[in-house]
């Protein structure tokens, strides 16, 4: 038996935060050492932070990363540690991991497969390293190899798959297995998406089984650089079995997950595999050999107990994940921007009410995870935070809401806003903006020399009400040194059902990555059940019984969002087909007919036509949205996910094809 204790570390790093990143790495090394670990796997690009964007092209970034690496070398004495950093070699930039052994760099492994789709843009900055190539570089006063390396450390063979390397078909682990690998380390920066944990577990488990090795996967955690949320969830597997797993969506800066592995057990499993054929060629083995005296494992079990968190067993897992991911994203955005809290223009409708709930849930979840003292310590820069004694008083300090009434606002929405703010514990204001709306309309009417009417000028009169709400709520945010949260959702973004500089106003748009149909479902769940460990917010009943409506037209017009657009489930289905799956209008129509067979062909075609026309017409609005939190592969954020031309042909020929298809179908039916 050859036991080795390993540690997979989740870190909440920040791009270019040299002192903060250094301190968190040092804390991780201390905790891993105290747990008896000898091998410590830190996340991808742990020195610089993953989300440095074009700062990767700055010479100062590389120089600071190299200085930080050298500064941390003494902290690695007695350990085998992976530290990620960008490296410039022959005029090209590579995403690398430096394996440090007992305080000395042993070599640099460069990432072979770059993440270049969806939210990731690694090929913009980095070059992929070619398979099997090995070069030499000078690093921290040492000459070390760089490239596609295998290490033999004190007789234990260690290799790497760096994040995306493990997601591809030709993953490097297969080649490592032929070279007799014992331990594969995977430092990752894998962003949160609904259900993604199961995919990670599969490739970690299958890698450890197929390669007959032990596998250590580490990941970032938290809102690292503004949009992407990382969920941690470190994994340790051996021989196809999951040995340990770290918590997900934690508010802790450092989470160390450990396990004691039997290297001899996986070696003998490999030996018993009849299909295994090691790569044996004439000449010397090209492994980088470093002497290292492996310490005896700790006397008490070093393996972190593996069990799913209670909320992960919920039948409403998507609702749980949404709550926890957005809440953590809000918390990190707040503290890393060093502002004092949040402000929400609370209309009494679903979207703004959802955001208020999420802020309160942020407070509750943080207290559950790190305690009241831990939360106050992380937000210690905020005046008055030390005096907040419970979740309610913290929410009152951190969140201000304002109901901004016009002549078309109802008492129902006013009461709903008051109830939600009260139950959440927010500081709540009521502002009457009707005189301001009236003054603008009279001012412009006089300037143009014409009267304005709902019959002729309805859209413009609706928008001015939304825009008049913006200056006042921005003033509240500025006075409180707070972040104004925009309440636009993804369904509205798809069809431009939002007023730019009105309800799109804000510094962060936390729900712009989620569709309206799910959001309504989530609100009903929070009203009656809520996240495990927190419970429901019954005041949402006042919101959930209302149909979504902007309340920007006279009450006799009976305004409802779904009357203006289409049923939200239909809208979201078209959005998935057209934007996520890139189907043409006629293909979207055929899919919709299968999904909603009770709807007529003409009605279905009209919805598809309306969606495509509104989508094309409103790309400029999506370009103006505040940064949004990424939640899945249906995001519409043009800065990180879904790019579309602001000016285009508008699918005119494709929509004509749709019209002819429906006419043909209707003609055939008429003949029957």
Written account of the structure:
- This protein is α/β, with parallel strands linked by helices and about 675 residues long.
- The chain has 21 helices and 21 strands.
- The strands form 4 sheets. It has an 8-stranded mixed β-sheet. A 7-stranded mixed β-sheet has the order 15-14-11-10-9-8-17, with helices on one face.
- Strand 12 (about 220-225) and strand 13 form a beta hairpin.
- Helix 17 (about 570-580) crosses helix 18 (about 585-595), helix 17 crosses helix 19 (about 600-615) and helix 18 crosses helix 19 (about 600-615).
Short description:
The protein is of the alpha/beta class. It is globular, with a radius of gyration of 28 Å.
Question: Secondary-structure map with pairings?
Answer:
Blueprint: E1 3-11, H1 18-34, E2 39-41, H2 59-72, E3 80-89, E4 92-101, E5 104-110, H3 122-125, E6 134-139, E7 142-147, E8 151-153, E9 156-160, H4 172-178, E10 183-188, H5 196-210, E11 214-219, E12 221-223, E13 229-231, E14 235-238, E15 241-245, E16 254-262, H6 263-272, E17 288-290, H7 317-337, E18 342-345, H8 350-378, H9 391-398, E19 399-405, H10 411-424, E20 427-432, H11 434-448, H12 454-480, E21 483-484, H13 490-495, H14 516-528, H15 541-544, H16 561-564, H17 568-580, H18 585-595, H19 601-617, H20 619-624, H21 652-671
Parallel strand pairs: 1-2, 2-3, 5-7, 8-17, 9-10, 10-11, 18-19, 18-21, 19-20
Antiparallel strand pairs: 1-16, 3-4, 4-5, 6-7, 8-9, 11-14, 12-13, 14-15
Helix pairs in contact: 1-2, 7-8, 8-9, 8-10, 11-12, 17-18, 17-19, 18-19, 19-21
């Amino acid at each position: 038996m050859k036991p080795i204790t390993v540690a997979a570390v989740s870190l909440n790093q920040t791009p270019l935060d040299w002192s903060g990143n250094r301190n968190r790495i040092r804390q991780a090394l201390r905790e891993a050492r105290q747990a008896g670990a000898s091998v410590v796997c830190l996340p991808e690009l742990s020195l610089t932070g993953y989300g440095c964007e074009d700062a990767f092209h700055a010479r100062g970034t590389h120089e600071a990363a190299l200085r930080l690496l050298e500064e941390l070398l003494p902290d690695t004495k007695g350990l085998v540690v992976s530290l990620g950093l960008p490296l410039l070699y022959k005029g090209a930039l590579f995403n690398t991991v430096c394996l440090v052994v007992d305080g000395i760099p042993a070599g640099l492994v460069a990432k072979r497969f770059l993440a270049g789709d969806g939210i990731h843009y690694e090929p913009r900055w980095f070059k992929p390293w070619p398979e099997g190539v090995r070069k030499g570089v000078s690093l921290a006063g040492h000459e070390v190899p760089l490239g596609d390396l295998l290490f033999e450390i004190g007789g234990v063979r260690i290799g790497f798959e760096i994040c995306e390397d493990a997601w591809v078909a030709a993953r490097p682990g297969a080649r490592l297995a032929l070279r007799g690998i014992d331990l594969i380390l995977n430092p990752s920066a894998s962003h949160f998406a609904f259900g993604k944990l199961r995919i990670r577990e599969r490739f970690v488990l299958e890698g450890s089984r197929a390669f007959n090795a032990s596998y250590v996967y580490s990941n970032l955690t938290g809102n690292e650089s503004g949009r992407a949320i990382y969920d941690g969830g470190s994994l340790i597997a051996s021989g196809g079995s999951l040995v340990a797993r770290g918590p997900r969506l934690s508010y802790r800066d450092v989470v160390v997950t450990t396990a004691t592995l039997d290297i001899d057990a996986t070696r003998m499993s490999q030996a018993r595999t009849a299909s295994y054929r090691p790569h044996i060629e004439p000449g010397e083995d090209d492994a980088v050999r470093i002497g290292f005296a492996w310490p005896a494992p700790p006397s008490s079990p070093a393996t972190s107990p593996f069990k799913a968190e209670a909320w992960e067993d919920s039948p409403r897992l998507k609702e749980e994940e949404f709550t926890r991911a957005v809440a953590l994203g809000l918390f990190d955005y707040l503290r890393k921007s060093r502002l004092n809290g949040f402000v929400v223009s609370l209309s009494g409708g679903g979207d703004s009410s959802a955001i208020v709930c999420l802020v309160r849930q942020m407070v509750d979840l943080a207290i559950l995870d790190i305690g009241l003292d831990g939360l106050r310590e992380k937000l210690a820069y905020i005046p008055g935070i030390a005096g907040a004694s419970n979740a309610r008083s913290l929410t009152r300090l951190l969140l201000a809401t304002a109901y901004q009434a016009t002549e078309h606002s109802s008492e129902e929405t006013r009461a709903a806003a008051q109830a939600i703010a009260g139950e959440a514990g927010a500081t709540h204001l009521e502002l009457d903006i009707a005189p301001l709306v009236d003054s603008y309309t009279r001012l412009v009417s006089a300037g143009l020399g014409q009267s304005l009417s709902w019959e002729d000028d309805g859209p413009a009169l609706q928008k001015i009400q939304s825009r008049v709400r913006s200056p006042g709520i921005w003033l509240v945010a500025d006075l409180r040194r707070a972040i104004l949260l925009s309440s636009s959702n993804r369904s509205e973004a798809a069809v431009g059902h939002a007023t730019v500089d009105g309800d799109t106003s804000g510094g962060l748009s936390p729900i712009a990555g989620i569709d309206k149909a799910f959001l309504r479902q989530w609100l009903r769940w929070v009203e009656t059940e809520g996240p495990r460990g927190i419970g429901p917010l019954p005041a949402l009943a006042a919101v959930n019984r209302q149909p979504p409506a902007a309340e920007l037209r006279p009450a006799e017009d009976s305004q409802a969002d779904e009357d203006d657009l289409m049923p939200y489930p239909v809208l979201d289905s078209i959005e998935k087909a057209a934007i996520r799956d890139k189907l043409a209008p006629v293909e979207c129509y055929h899919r919709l007919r299968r999904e909603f067979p009770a709807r007529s062909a003409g009605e279905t075609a009209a919805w598809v036509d309306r969606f495509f026309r509104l989508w094309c017409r409103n790309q400029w609005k999506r370009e103006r949205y505040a940064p949004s939190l990424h939640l899945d592969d249906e995001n519409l954020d043009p800065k990180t996910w879904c790019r579309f031309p602001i000016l285009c042909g508008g699918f005119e020929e494709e929509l004509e094809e749709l019209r002819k298809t429906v006419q043909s179908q209707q003609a055939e039916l008429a003949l029957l």
